[in-house]
Amino acid sequence: MTTGLTETRSLLKSIYRLLSGRYTVSDIVNLLHVRGSFLAELLRVSSSLRDEYFGNIITYSRKAFVPLTNICANACSYCNFRRTPQDADAVLMRIEDAVELVRKWEAKYNIKEVLVCTGERPDVYPEVRDKLKMWGFRDYIEYVYSFLERLIKRTSQVLPHVNIGYLSFEDAKLLRPYVASFGLMLECATVRLLNPGMPHASSPTKHPRLRVEFLYTCERLSVPVTTGILVGIGETVDEIARSIHVLSTLCRRLTCIQEIIVQNYMPGERSSRTCATCREVLLQEMLRLLAVTRIVIRDLTSIQAPPNLAPGTYSLYILAGINDWGGISPVTPDYVNPGYRWPSIRELRKATEDMGYILRERLPIYPKYVREHRRWVSDILRDRVLSLVDETNLVAPDRASTD
Ligand code: SF4
Fold first, then answer.
1. Residues whose beta carbon lies within 6 Å of some atom of ligand 1
2. Domains, the chain, ranges and CATH?
3. pLDDT tens digits, residue range 296-307?
4. Where would you tag: which of 102, 147, 262, 378 has the fewest CB atoms within 10 A of its CB?
5. Burial of 111 (C-beta count, 10 Å sphere; 0-12/13-18/19+)
6. In sequence order, what are the residues at sequence separation of 6 or more whose Cβ sits closer than 8 angstroms to the Cβ of residue 106?
7. How many other C-beta atoms are found inside a 10 Å radius of the C-beta of residue 226?
8. Whose CA is nearest to atom 2 of ligand 1?
9. DSSP codes, 278-295
10. Separation of CA 65 and ligand 1 centre (Å)
């Protein structure tokens, strides 16, 4: 009995300290272990905070996934996406082909977000450099720039969310006029994951220092950015807590972080063979993680978790305090997590409404950044962005799709 009471007092103190903003990483660790009725209490707190800050609206972005190339210089052991030029299914898309696909999807599926996703610096490989040279590009960044430029010239409403790994300030600055938002996961704030035998041992640009540096680049360039953590790849609970704390500190220092993704590792055909440190993350653990993240992050930014990685149970994420489902594609699969189908918009709407909330479509730029478009939206994309939204800066109902 005494032990139970002592534990309850300790957990209540941790919640109080998190709510007051005067917490230590041990408070986060403490709450990442709660179970039973205390988990229910934690969810009640996080859910109330979400309601207070974001009301009864849960958002999503209607997207198409464009994997320009799956060739990557890194080799994260949990990755199901990466290929090398020697692989038979390695892809480096011709720009015209990629633009044509998006044009079709824009017309047929009313997508607003183009998720431009690639491996990191594929031009470390001579085969890729030769091909790019043959097509007239000096390097990979010039190739991506050319894709974005033609995409915007030849389409009428799509906006690029660019997730192509770590970029130097100069490279990001070059792309910036055609980028609505960047994406770069912190994944984990510990350098231990780069040690031999760990998932980032052959992935130098997964060093947390570089990931944080990129977030500062986005601030300097005034581009909204999405970041987040990936759990279940070999980190400890203490390291997860530290990652949440690092993101919270960054959200207090930077204004460019528009969303934090809390993503769970899910086994894939390749990663099951290559990742010795990976484990599946249980639903209860995800709920704790989302709730604690919401309590730490409060209203500093949006929190989303991918629904396709919790098939059948994702509506419970609403209880844990998320306010966004991320990008959902009515047309392309999740190339990063093959085998995990996105719910349809109809399913997502039903699950959201069953929990008492309203589903609204957003752009790949969150409303706050649309409102402050003079700072956050480039001159090239501004008219396009403003033509798509209503007074809430979410997609106007007459421009949205219902399924
Ligand atoms: S997770 Fe990203 S950086 Fe790592 S190997 Fe896969 S594509 Fe490359």
1. 72, 74-76, 79, 81-82, 119-120, 165, 203
2. 62-288+366-399 (3.20.20.70)
3. 999 999 999 999
4. 378
5. buried
6. 155, 156, 157, 158
7. 27
8. 119
9. --PPPHHHHHHHHHHHHH
10. 16
